Amino acid sequence: MTTGLVEIPGYVAGTWTVDTVHSTVGFAVRHLMISKVRGRFGDFDATFTTGTDPLDSSVTATVRMGSVDTGSAQRDEHLRAADFFAVADHPTMTFRSTGLRPARGQGRFELDGELTIKGVTRPVTFDLEIGGFGPDHFDPDGRGARAGFTASGVIDRTEFGVDTNMPIPGGMGLGEKVEVTLEIEAVLATGA
After folding, report:
1. What residue segments make up the domains of the chain, in order of their start?
2. Where in this chain does the record put each Lipid/polyisoprenoid-binding YceI-like domain (predicted)?
3. Are 113 and 96 in contact (CB under 8 A)?
């Protein structure tokens, strides 16, 4: 299918759910201003609707913040505490798309939306790359379809009330900018 200047080979319109086994919601943030700490969330879900016109597509997603995993149990517990995510009061992070625009390059778009963390909602834009559409080889009937997407962007954690920091000589111990990367494989639930 072609929309504007972008061609999407094998495009399928419909409603999709995330295959969480084959998907990742990850992040990276500067630590001590010399390296990056990476982490991911293990518990999330999303629903995608790919419209007959791809630019009419939308997504809603929920991430359970308690599922944070940075490879350090002590650090993960600190992230769940009031200093950072305040999971007891704000157990989820949500995203709701508000628009989709073509970007330069085959299968590339800009995905606009509203991200809510700790009860604070801000507009965000993610770079979206469509990995492709194809048959679902895990479907025993052989009639299903799968799609792959990569979304990435940078948010300022302090704008969402995640503003704890650790002063160190010459600066701060934790960067304010957080790189967010989502590698999503979705399964067609219903066709358009």
Report:
1. 16-191
2. 15-187
3. yes
Q: For residues 171 and 18, which has the higher predicted lDDT (pLDDT)?
A: 18
Q: Which overall architecture, per CATH, does domain 16-191 show?
A: Beta Barrel (2.40)
pLDDT at residue 1 tops 60: no
Cβ(166)–Cβ(159) below 8 Å: no
Cα–Cα dist 71/134, whole Å = 34
Instruction: Note if the pTM is more than 0.70.
Output: yes
The 3-class SS string of the chain reads CEECCEECCCCCCEEEEECHHHCEEEEEEEECCCEEEEEEECCEEEEEEECCCHHHCEEEEEEEHHHEECCCHHHHHHHHCCCCCCCCCCCEEEEEEEEEEECCCCCEEEEEEEEEECCEEEEEEEEEEEEEEEECCCCCCCCCEEEEEEEEEEEEHHHHCCCCCCEECCEECEEEEEEEEEEEEEEEEEEC
Q: What pLDDT score does 3 carry?
A: 46
Of 17, 57, 24, 29, residue with least CA distance to 43: 24
Q: Are 124 and 159 in contact (CB under 8 A)?
A: no
If you count them, how many residues does the chain have? 192
